[in-house]
Design a protein that fits this description.
Elements: H1 3-20, H2 22-25, H3 29-46, H4 48-55, H5 58-66, H6 75-114, H7 119-122, H8 130-147, H9 150-164, H10 168-187, H11 194-201, H12 207-232, H13 252-276, H14 280-302, H15 312-316, H16 321-339, H17 342-354, H18 357-367, H19 373-383, H20 389-394, H21 398-401, H22 409-420, H23 430-439, H24 443-472
Helix pairs in contact: 1-3, 3-6, 3-16, 4-6, 6-9, 6-13, 6-14, 6-16, 8-9, 8-10, 8-12, 9-10, 9-23, 10-12, 10-22, 10-23, 10-24, 11-19, 12-22, 12-24, 13-14, 16-23, 17-18, 17-19, 18-22, 22-24
Length: about 475
């Protein structure tokens, strides 16, 4: 490990600490995250000559052969060009997909909300008993995140909470449960979480394997924390004040239409991806554009005053941009750790020192609460290619290598651990980051009240998977 790499790790740890201590420092976490991401890229660029030849290896040599004009340039110039034209472009492309997906999802949810669409659900949730409501919200979130994804589901459910619970502190408790249920629900579905999608699309796991081995641990990982969270809640919620009708020209049937179009559009996104194999953000922006056209026609027919219209340009101005910028900063920071080989080195160290797939996956899952689970899973997939019969026969430990075949236990357990482990800290998953941004949940509050429950559920679910391995083989 080079000196520059060590500096990058130290800066990341300091920045992460700054995010964790947002309230004592009185510095907004978005500012810290953006500063962290940009500083890491600056340091990486300045020390590119000592990192790129080692971390990029063959990719760097291929880049030089494709750019003969750099042959006579100093090493630093060559490495810097690689960072500028390969690393930062590639990562920014991946990150932009996530951000555009997020912007599209948040806009669609806001569009449904501003037209009163969520009354379709809230009107059917009549219970005011806190514990009953908690379980209803958690069950809906768990299965909805398997159909949509944990990011979109969290946005929808947080917006729904605002219609049901007035007290912010109580909403935080419910929001914590939503984060747990969303991450657990996405882990067992091939389209429920980005990392599970990666493993499924690449052929490491099949749908049958996920249902067989990951579904039950995922259920356990959310049920155990909910049993404790429900004890925090007593009695009934006060009746919510009747919502003021902002625009009485929006009829009940029109609210329902907007709800079904919005939610139906969100459900359509993973179907669109499975049919076209295009990135999810394309489907999300396609749905958004169709809803945009629909609302334009809708308001053109109504002939309302401009102030009473909720056209999409005015709606999009209400989405939470600080949360999106926070997400950008975090992902850019993690991208540096991935490009410099820090994550790959960490995964390799685990394999050499532990050599036990159960322990490795559990540790990787715990790490996904600190850094984004996508590069962690990507590093694991890069380090452990799917084992063939030839590779198993040639391996020094054939029994160990069996865990890396298609539907091997390493991959199925990785799907569970990477998805559920992100719940341990609120910034460990997209669901947590969104809940943090929308509800202004502090890192310290989540750490004190939810993190230990998430860890308990995570370990109980992992233990359940271990029992399944013993029983089912």
């Amino acid at each position: 490990m080079t000196t520059i790499t060590t500096i990058l790790i130290v800066i990341f740890c300091v920045g992460y600490l700054g995010i964790a201590l947002e309230h004592p420092l009185k510095i907004d976490k978005t500012a810290t995250a953006l500063l962290l991401g940009m500083v890491l890229w600056v340091v990486y660029a300045l020390g590119a000559d000592s990192i790129v030849p080692i971390a990029a290896g063959e990719h760097f040599q291929r880049f030089l052969s494709d750019h003969p004009d750099l042959a006579n340039e100093p090493l630093h110039k060559q490495a810097l060009e690689y960072v500028l034209n390969m690393d930062i472009v590639e990562h920014l492309g991946d990150i932009s997909q996530t951000l555009f997906f997020l912007i599209g999802a948040m806009t669609i949810v806001e569009l449904v909300d501003v037209h009163g669409g969520f009354k379709v659900i809230t009107d059917h949730i009549v219970t005011r008993h806190k514990r009953t409501l908690l379980w209803i919200i958690a069950v809906v979130t768990f299965f909805l995140s398997a159909i949509l994804d944990n990011l979109t589901t969290t946005i929808v459910m947080i917006m729904l909470l605002r219609k049901l619970i007035a007290d912010q502190h109580e909403r935080w408790i419910f929001a914590g449960a939503i984060v747990l249920a969303a991450n657990s629900g996405g882990a067992w579905s091939p389209i429920g979480d980005v990392t599970t999608i990666m493993l499924w699309v690449k052929g490491n796991v099949t749908v049958a394997s996920l249902f067989k081995y990951v579904l039950l641990p995922s259920i356990v990982s959310v049920v155990i924390p909910l049993l404790f969270i429900s004890r925090m809640l007593k009695g009934n919620l006060p009746e919510m004040k009747a919502e003021a009708v902002v625009d009485n020209t929006i009829t009940a049937s029109e609210r329902s239409t907007m709800f079904y179009l919005g939610v139906g559009g969100l459900i359509f996104v993973p179907i669109f991806k499975s049919i076209t194999h295009l990135p999810p953000f394309v489907g999300m922006l396609l749905v958004l554009s169709l809803l945009w056209v629909f609302t334009e026609i809708f308001y053109n027919k109504k002939m309302l005053e401009k102030a009473r219209e909720h056209r999409l340009p005015s709606v999009i101005s209400h989405i939470d941009m600080p949360s999106i910028l926070f997400f950008l900063g975090i992902l850019m920071a993690v991208a540096v750790l991935q490009s410099t080989g820090v994550l790959g080195w960490l995964a390799s160290s685990l394999d050499e020192s532990v050599h036990n797939i159960f322990v490795i996956d559990v540790i990787l899952g715990a790490l996904s609460s600190i850094v984004d689970n996508v590069p962690l899973v990507a590093a694991a997939m890069g380090m452990y290619p799917v084992a063939t019969e030839t590779a198993i026969a040639a391996a020094a430990d054939p029994v160990y290598m069996q865990n890396f075949v298609v539907d091997g236990h390493f991959w199925a357990l990785l799907s569970y651990c990477a998805g559920v482990g992100g719940s341990i800290l609120i910034i460990g998953s997209a669901a947590g980051v969104i809940a943090m941004g929308l509800e202004k949940i502090s890192f310290g509050w989540y750490l004190k009240h939810i993190s230990w429950l998430a860890l308990l559920g995570y370990l109980c679910g992992a233990a359940t998977y271990w029992l399944e391995m013993l029983i089912l083989g």
